[in-house]
Write a structure and sequence with these properties.
Blueprint: H1 2-23, E1 43-46, E2 49-54, E3 57-63, E4 69-71, E5 75-76, E6 79-80, E7 83-84, E8 97-99, E9 106-107, E10 120-122, E11 129-130, E12 144-147, H2 152-159, E13 163-166
Length: 172
């Protein structure tokens, strides 16, 4: 009988400690230990294009221009675009042709997902990084990309069974 009371007594002490701790009201001092907050990057919108500024990287994060032929501007609100974000053109159903501007260096995953009528994208030689899923969801039967011979887009197109056209030489 002596052995039964010892665990019950211990359990009673633990429960009473927990209940007394639960009833304590401790005030959190946010100035001493601030909670982490989500960092929001500044964004700028111009003519239906939205960019996010992250240091030297200017990311085209959203395109609200749903037209047949798009020519992406070199800069938005004075910021030169350096990359195309995931989902930037996602779901646009009108574009058939998109020309990316020189200076863009990266195309992220799913940038063109769901562009069901997209047939052509010009990718400048400045693009050196293309995510494997950048053109996921685009109809490969009639879709092709254009760029310089030996460029990142040619290597990408060959590796992903996408039609590639060589950029005509500029004789100027």
């Amino acid at each position: 009988m002596k052995h039964i009371f010892k665990p019950i007594f211990s359990l009673t002490i633990i429960l009473s400690l927990l209940l007394s701790l639960a009833s304590c009201k401790i005030k959190y001092d946010e100035t001493a230990f601030p909670l982490p907050t989500e960092t929001t990057l500044p964004t700028y919108t111009e003519k239906g294009y939205k960019v996010s500024v992250d240091g030297d990287e200017i990311i085209l994060i959203e395109c609200n221009v749903n037209e047949e032929y798009l020519s992406i501007p070199n800069s938005i609100s004075g910021y030169k675009i350096t990359s195309v974000a995931s989902g930037c053109f996602a779901g646009l159903d009108k574009p058939r042709s998109i020309i990316l501007s020189n200076g863009i260096t990266k195309i992220e995953a799913d940038a063109f997902r769901g562009c069901i009528n997209l047939e052509f994208v010009y990718v400048p030689n400045s693009v050196t990084e293309i995510d494997a899923n950048a053109f996921a969801g685009v109809n490969n039967e009639r879709f092709c990309v254009m760029g310089r011979k030996g460029s990142a887009i040619e290597i990408f197109a060959n590796a992903n069974n996408i039609k590639f056209m060589t950029e005509p030489l500029n004789n100027n």
